[in-house]
Amino acid sequence: MTDSRPVLTMTGISKSFPGVRALHNVDFRLYPGEVHALMGENGAGKSTLIKVLTGVYGIDEGTITLGDEQVAFSGPMQASAAGVSTVYQEVNLCPNLSVAENIFIGREPRRLGAVRWGEVRRQARQLLTRLDLDIDVTAPVASYSLAVQQMVAIARAIDVQARVLILDEPTSSLDAGEVAQLFRVMRQLRDEGIAILFVTHFLDQVYGIADRITVLRNGTLVGEYPTAELPQLALVEKMIGKELDVLERIEEQPRRELAAVEGGTPFVAVSELGRKGAVAPFTLNIHAGEVVGLAGLLGSGRTEAARLFFGADRADRGEVAVNGTPTSLRSPIQAIEQGIGFCSENRRAEGIIPDLTVRENMILAMQAARGWLRPIPRRRQDELVEQYIKALSIRPANPDLPVRNLSGGNQQKVLLARWLITEPRLLILDEPTRGIDIGAKAEIQKLVVQLSDGGMAVLFISAELEEVLRLSHKVVVMRDREMVAQLDNDDTVDADRVMQTIASGSQREEANQ
Amino acid sequence: MSERLKPILSHRLFWPLAVLAVMVVANTIYRPGFLAVEVNNGHLYGTPIDILRLSAPLILVGLGMTLVIATGGIDLSVGSICAISGAIACLHISEASDQNSLVTVFTALAMALGAALVLGAWNGVLVSVIGIQPIIATLILMVAGRGLAQLVTEGQIITINSGPYRAIGLGHFLTLPLAIFIALGAALLVAALTRRTALGMIIESVGGNREASRLAGIRSSRMVFLVYVVSAACAAVAGFMMTANVSSADGNNAGLWVELDAILAVVIGGTSLAGGRFYLSGTIVGALIIQTLTTTVYAMNISPQTALLFKAVVVIAVCLIQAPAFRAKFGRRGRGTPPPAAPAQPRQKEEVTA
To answer: Which Gene3D superfamilies would you find in this protein's record (chain A) (predicted)?
Structure first.
């Protein structure tokens, strides 16, 4: 870290939206050649601070100084021209354009007004090589995994001679190897003197790479700390502003007994269910009150398997029985009628309806199940919505706000509420804790335990093994679009063993079904 | 700006209504008798009444168009459907022995409406089942429909002499033109269907995010199909009015370009072409603006060559005034208020009373 003057100073920043005070008198400094982690719960104002900085939003009060000049960017394009580039949490690329086109869109090298495509491809290849990525730059971005897309977005950002690089939760969709690769790139950029602002919810990543930490809570600044002087526990306390008892209680929770819930007719039993090109045929029983964890790497077929349970995709082979009665799940509404709910991992594309209010988003699934002719009475809607806003501590607690005005974590909670309102008997949660803060994560984990104690079956998908092991009665391991093992989550199962199973895929004989 | 005025100024109907008021005032200044209404034979006559009567078909088409646009689609075929339904109705009446028989007229209406529903279903299938982009899918019928109307009329203009049928366009009820009541009734029916049930929210949800709606258990495809059928039914009734006004069916010119006026009315009314939130009351005001404009152009003796240009200028002005980005830049309150300040007002009530 250098001890020169900050490259970026934000002073007394305030920003309000209708019904929400997103930032209040926040100071922030960023030095060249450092990785600076911006930490806080959902709705603490991290994303707003970044958007204010890059000119997506105007500021109500305060000043931003870049280098020696006071700046007020009118938009991300202007910001990146001045050397402040951003890679957002949700990849913002044009999926139908090629990798090279995406990297150079809007600033293609030209000669006499014509784009020099050869040059575009050559430079794109060069940039990606710097990131250790060897891919076909003429292929459309959509043909690559989310992780690769994220790297392309970073390549796009660092190309603009960046002085400040903002990474807004870049790792939430990356696996461990890819995170390591990203960190290597980040260190390299840092050593070149770029100031990196890094937002993440993974604490170990913060301690793995950040030089300093700034903590926000409820739109106000809590403080700025050198990473070495802020132990992990203290950081979490500063973020959530209360003692960690919730989290600790879950940590202390004994392993969950499979025997207690298994037995009798399973709520859902599928046998040899499969879909060509998505997931190989698999057999799985889920009992009432049972939490089944679905572990595996990104792209291992976890989501694809879950979608078959919900009828989001049609299975092309295999059988399904609900409560012992053979049935077919050909569409989501059929699954909902059988008491199944599905919270997608892709919040933006498959979850929220951005224009509709929090209230409407919450009651949507219940309303769909009732049919349009039987609207839910307004009083009942208000009751339900109020109840879940309180239970999930959704902020801001205003049911009439369009849901797009909420932060990502709170949108996630709205979606969770949408399904809880339908009182499902099996709830499928696909990465429900991804990209949300530790407090909300603990709340959701606690909720899963409560729900299953109350008799609800849960199919829990997560890339975080610790989380899966903590909550599940049974761990199902997916690998290469195949279900390779079902492990009774007893004392013999730990993260290492699951990891080995994922790696080797050879523990079929240990499957205990 | 006082705090009292703010909710009025930020109401989404404020600017369309203001434009309408300005046009009425301008007309009155130009021609002091503009607002005069007189009683003749127990019926009300006058320019305002004419505007209401003539805007009825546009309101009808606009209602259906609003729902289609709310799902993120568009229906270019409504003009052709007006022509086809008018042609079928007139053909059946012209072949009857007693053109004034109520039975004949109602049979004609039922036949034409049935045909329109089939055409709407065709659009719906193309868009929701086959997945053709709405603008292309309905373009097919927009073009082919004119041919279909010509086929029905055999290339002739069918002239009829039927009192009951003419009443749809020119008849009176409670001193006011019957057409006004038909449009009002349709508006109330659509408003009740969408806002008293959950249909409106479901349509908005499908328009906002079709895949997410499907995963929430909504039969998205079925909803998309439905709105095209409703749109065709609205267009059919509008077609009856247009042909009843002139007691003849012209396959070429009945409902010509009405789709464009309807889209304009919807947009002026505040519904986004991207789909999502829709405002029936806004569409009605939009239709009134367009009809007032047309009447103004005629009344001011603006030559037909320049009339369209004049209309375009006013429409651009209305759209600009409404655009939040434009207002933020040039308005007096240009403090850069963020656009998503959607007023969460008791929308339901206005829609029904509008």
So the answer is: P-loop containing nucleotide triphosphate hydrolases (3.40.50.300)
Interchain CB contact of B209 with A (< 8 Å)? yes
Q: Which residue of B has its CA nearest to A19?
A: B341
- The span from the CA of A350 to the CA of A332, in Å, is 12
- Burial per residue of A157-176, b for 16 or more beta-carbon CB atoms within 10 angstroms, e otherwise: bbbbebbbbbbbbbbbbbbe
Q: Are B275 and B205 in contact (CB under 8 A)?
A: no
Q: Between A57, A333, A374, which is nearest B217 by CB?
A: A333
CA dihedral A87, A92, A96, A102 (to 10 degrees): -30
Specify the CATH superfamily of domain A243-339+424-513.
P-loop containing nucleotide triphosphate hydrolases (3.40.50.300)
Cβ distance A352 to B213 less than 8 Å, yes or no, reads no
Tell me whether the CATH fold assigned to A8-240 matches the one assigned to A243-339+424-513.
Answer: yes
Cβ-Cβ contacts under 8 Å, B209 against chain A: 349, 352-354
pTM as predicted: 0.77
pLDDT value at position B262?
Answer: 94
Contact between chains at B213 and A342 (C-beta distance less than 8 A): no
| A421 pLDDT more than 50 | yes
DSSP string, A296-351: --TTSSHHHHHHHHHTSS--SEEEEEETTEEE---SHHHHHHTTEEEE-S-HHHHT
Q: What share of chain B is helix, strand, coil (3-state, %, to 5)?
A: 70, 5, 25
Rounded Cα distance, A157 and B317, in Å: 39
Name the band, by pLDDT with cuts 50, 70 and 90, for residue B347: very low
State how far the Cα of B242 lies from the Cα of B105, in Å rounded to an integer.
15
Q: Which two tokens stand for residue B165?
A: 């049928």
B218, A402: Cβ pair inside 8 Å? no
Residue range A403-431: mean pLDDT, rounded: 91
pLDDT at A371 over 60: yes
Residue type, B93: I
pLDDT in tens, A300-313: 888 899 999 899 99
Q: Please state, in angstroms and as integers, the Cα–Cα distance from residue A96 to each residue in A152, A170, A308, following that order.
A: 14, 21, 27
* B344 closest CB neighbour out of A357, A368, A372: A357
Contact partners, residue B99, CB within 8 Å, separation at least 6: B93, B160, B161, B162, B165
d(Cα A369, Cα B111) in Å, to the nearest integer? 35
B200: pLDDT strictly greater than 90:
yes
- Distance of CA A267 to CAs A272, A322, A428, Å? 17, 6, 13
Share of chain B above pLDDT 70, in %: 91
- Model confidence at B34, pLDDT cuts 50, 70, 90, reads confident
- Look at residue B3 in the predicted model and tell me its pLDDT: 64
In words, the CATH class of domain A8-240 is: alpha beta
B208 with A355: Cβ contact below 8 A: yes
Looking at the DSSP bridge assignments, the partners of residue B37 are B46
pLDDT digits (tens, 9 = 90+) for B46-59: 888 999 999 999 99
CATH for B284: 1.10.3470
Domain that holds residue B285: 6-353
**Which tokens go with A207?**
């301690």
Number of domains present in the structure of chain B: 1
Contact of B344 with chain A, judged by CB distance below 8 Å, is answered with: yes
Q: Which of A336, A375, A405 faces B217 most closely, judged by CB atoms?
A: A336
Q: How much is the average pLDDT of A80-102?
A: 83
Say if residues A151 and A127 touch (Cβ distance below 8 Å): no
Residue A319 and residue A270 in contact, taking contact as beta carbons nearer than 8 Å: yes
Break chain A into its structural domains and give their ranges: 8-240, 243-339+424-513, 351-423
